[in-house]
Amino acid sequence: MTERRASEGTESSTNDEPDHVVTAFLRNRGEILVCKRSDAVGTYPGAWGGVSGFAEGEPDEQVWRAIDEETGLTADEVSLVRAGRPVSVSDPEIDREWVVHPSLFDAASREIDLSDEHTEAAWIPPTALAGDDAADASGTSERETVPKLWATYERVAPTVRSIAADDDHGAAWLSIRAMEVLRDRAGLLLRERTATADAEPDSESAVDADGEWDELAAVANRLLESRPSMAVLRNRVNRVLAEASTDGEAGAETDTPDASSVLEAAIDGIERAVTADADAADRASEFATGRLLTLSWSGTVHDAILASDPDRIFVAESRPGREGVATAETLADTTAVTLCPDAAVAHVLAEEAIDTVLVGADTILPDGRVVNKTGTRPAALAAAREDVPVYVVAASDKISTRETVNLESGDRTAVYDGDARIDVTNPTFDVTPADCLAGLVTDQGILDPADVERIAAEFRENETWN
């Protein structure tokens, strides 16, 4: 095994150069995998850590081997989110220097097969690594970890900046990352509170609830500003702050909302969001039969199709990002897939006897119109011409509180990078009229316009925290 091979060579290593190791954080439903090291390893037996191994070659290659050997998860079951800057660790007690290369992966499954280098495994909120108070608030017990595990996680944790810059993932995925930012920051504030209380046990200012709330409210506002067109991100962030600032039973404002209340609301919000997305996909699976057409990438559509047994799927490539290609590739192992250019969608609908168009949504407006990746509107119009029903699959959290939306635009050079005096428009999203849709399939069932407006009104109430 990776870790044992390296630890067996410990005696022959020198102290002049640090040992390079990889640490992978596997994430599922917003929680990360930690493993308890066994006596079979040469360092830190009994301590908890991520999936780790010595970097005998290139760290980017070694980390995949460590995941395979230490968890049994294959490359098809995990996807790299990001690699972070290395963390230097000095341990004078054992006279060792380490350079830790962190990576974050999304895992499709929690079913793992531990090697004999670990005795236990657990999926926990990362905040459980940030101190006693955070561990208690997240419902997990304190764990002794390998050195600087929290600092290592912070190198790959989601940030406001990473959410703002992300052009690869959908709105639902990014909304969960936004709640993780709030959760992690609240956990760090609790860690700082504990340190202050330990250092100044008689201080009346050890708990600065107002200061914690102000800082977390500022983070929330930066998240809201990072992707202003994403209703689901706004709704989920607003709900975390609204729940943190109210009494859950009476619905009245609390006297002192603080980091602990935000942490609890964020953890609950992440679990609620993951469940809502899964429920929407489950309800949509009954429509994912026969011959389907879809476009771009939608996690809920993807999961709905996997839960069904369609005869064939036609996928528009969805330029400029060509997210449809990823959709086609991931579905090709389970069903017959045909990939087509965006401009050919109307032709495919006219010639290929499509039974259903199934698409995701970036935002659902209060009047039932749907904002989604450019190409959705022409696909819906062409489907109406051919009497093909169009179903939109999305969690109800994607219903916007606003009547209008600011549509994001892509790079103009993706359309034209020449020298002629040509104006370019490259909208990333378009708006599909409600009367072009057969139904909005959500975690709350198939919604009609009255349902959409009612849910939008509920989300407006959550905005009053700010």
From TrEMBL:
Pfam families referenced in this protein's UniProt entry, alphabetically: IF-2B, NUDIX
One of the GO biological process terms: L-methionine salvage from methylthioadenosine
Record carries keyword Transport: no
Domain of life: Archaea
InterPro entries referenced in this protein's UniProt entry, alphabetically: IF-2B-related, IF_2B-like_C, NagB/RpiA_transferase-like, NUDIX_hydrolase-like_dom_sf, NUDIX_hydrolase_dom
Gene3D superfamilies linked: Nucleoside Triphosphate Pyrophosphohydrolase (3.90.79.10), Translation initiation factor eif-2b, domain 2 (3.40.50.10470)
GO molecular function, one term: translation initiation factor activity
Nudix hydrolase domain ranges (all copies): 17-153
Positions of region (Disordered): 1-20
Stored PROSITE patterns: NUDIX (PS51462)
UniProt keyword list: Initiation factor, Protein biosynthesis
Protein family membership: Belongs to the eIF-2B alpha/beta/delta subunits family.
Protein name: Initiation factor 2B related protein
Provenance organism: Halovivax asiaticus JCM 14624
Lineage per the UniProt record: Archaea, Methanobacteriati, Methanobacteriota, Stenosarchaea group, Halobacteria
